[in-house]
Amino acid sequence: MSFSPHPPSNGLIGHRGLAALAPENTLSSFLLAAKYGLEWIEFDLRLTQDNNLVIFHDETLNRTTNHQGKLAQCTTAKVKSLDAGSWFSPEFKNEPIPFFTEILPKLLNLNIYLNIELKLSSKPTIIEQNTLAQIFLKTLKTHWPKQKPWQLISCAHWPLLMDLRAHIADLPLGFLSNNCNASIIRHLKTIPNAAFHCYFKALTEPMIAHLKVQQIPFLAYTVNNLDIANSLLKSGAFAIFSDFPLK
Fold first, then answer.
1. What whole-number distance in Å separates Cα of residue 35 and Cα of residue 29?
2. 167: containing domain
3. Predicted TM-score (pTM) of this structure
């Protein structure tokens, strides 16, 4: 099976919306990406203590909210009370952390392709992996429009992606890694409808050539330099993730 998503026409995916111009992983950031004409956005999903999916990147709240501690130890009510915008700029004071099911209709109305990255703790247990997989699958089957194609689901924890694929056979998957080597490429070659999401500095010319020979789509993160972005796209990258509307 070939890779089902179509690449963005300008090669750009808005990283956590447009994270250089608005607080990352917020509705404001997603709306700004749409305003700048981006066709794709990427964002992260984590579970609250009471197993609700929220759009949030870090394991802890410290960097991007007015609260300390781990997101996974916060209830839905607590998360709803947090300010996820003031850290970025006073303009975004009281920007909420989005809840996935609540914001999904707004995202779909933007008519932007979604790359949803699933996040686990730094040392996930099997129980944590299974819980996130089960809740995410249930959420998709309940809330995803039946007439709309599945979007790209990515994760750095590869067993979680294979768990999802066992339940939804045509789900496009993105396998994340900070490294690129022949062993990784051999493994990815065996997985249908999949792409490789890699730290851009690991995508050396020999590795890019190997990926192209094996016909594995590759996406590079996170590129905020126009020359590097153009070089990667010319070398055959499916897309690059950027905090800026580079083009």
1. 10
2. 12-242
3. 0.97
